[in-house]
UniProtKB/TrEMBL annotation:
It comes from the Bacteria. Residues 402-421 are annotated as: Disordered. It comes from Psychrobacter glacincola. Transmembrane segments: none annotated. InterPro entries: FA_desaturase_dom, Fatty_acid_desaturase. Residues 405-421 have a biased composition (Low complexity). This is Fatty acid desaturase family protein. Pfam families: FA_desaturase (PF00487). Residues 103-374 form the Fatty acid desaturase domain.
Amino acid sequence: MRLLPPIFKAKSAVSTITSLVDAPFKTTRYPTLTAAPLAKAQTEALANELNTLYQSVMDSLGSDDARYIQRVYGTVVYSEVISRALLAFAGQLSSKRSKLSVWLLGTSLLSFSKILNNMELGHNVMHGQYDWMQHPHLNSQKFDWDIVCPAPLWQHSHNYLHHTFTNIVGRDHDVGYHLIRVTDEQPWTPSDRYNLFKTMILALGFEWAVAFHDIQISVDEYADTPQLTDIMQPKARALFGKIARQMGKDYIAFPALAGLTLGRSSAMTTLSGNITANIARNLWTWAVIFCGHFTEQAHIYTQLDANESKGDWYVRQILGSSNIQGNKWFHILTGNLSHQIEHHIFPDMPARHYAKIAPTVQAICAKYDLAYNTGHFSKQFMQVLGRIRHFSKPSSDEWHTYTQSISNNNSSTNENNNLGVNSATETLRGFRRFLPQVVRQAMFYA
């Protein structure tokens, strides 16, 4: 993982866009912005229209919204109970065909439950979309979801950093998750040649990347703070505590319960179903998140405007996000993050309203000549893979810069050796040498 700043600076391979007049950014692949694309007067007018739209929806919230999220919560609970019963029951069937059929049904239902828990329930509740209900459990301060990442860690890296500094390189750590190069503003390194392979690993274990993401960010964010250890210790302990609870529930408690009551075969069908459901949830979550942020037209910003207004912030959210077209159930299973544009401009609005306001938001974007990036899942997904593949290769200038830096490093190393400087580093021993640096950091602070 890319934890430390590279030893050379990136040289942009894509022409930098500074205004709508200078370049038609709607058609530029992988666009980069160095400044706000609209004049302040336009962004203020845009903000007024979007603020009015937001307030009209928030004023309409009531019993229908409360019943909706409670039904979602009930669906998550009941689907999990039924799916786990099916997985245990599958181990009792003698026919291989029947066992496989029931196992597939149970695993599919458990995957559905975990996806719904993660996306439409957990993500949206922890954004504070239903805090107005003052529900004892369905609020951003008390709800915790069914993944290995503790809610407070995710809320810091996602609710605060990502939604505040969206798509600003160096400020929004979700740009590539410190692992995948997705813009020419990220310096190329040899490991980027394996972008597609690293993406596959990230997708399969996405909940783990999300879990350690805030640890990685916080170590750098608070590096110069005297209270670094006091800040990191509770974060690391909360993380490992949540990991223990999640792994204990899915991979020990439920398989053991099935095994003790129904036998070894039920324990194995339960364990395998839990593993498969978690992987299915990870793959789906990763695909939705990446399709919402890293299509061809997702704009990257090089810096934060010191005088950024609410209207400028709205523009950055719109240009940095991508929607996915689909039917009602598709939107529910994405947590309505298929309306990523609407989510980024109104993160605390109950997500079920995004589909209703999307045509109005699109019309406002057209009025101010802002790209409203939307497309079917297949189109957006192929664009994401294309982007990841594109940035796995260096431009000729980037390759020259890299080879030059290697040459300079070799010369410096030889000089140090000639002067008798000991450049040896501490060798990690035991299983720790196989762990990513961010995991070792979390273990150190825990």
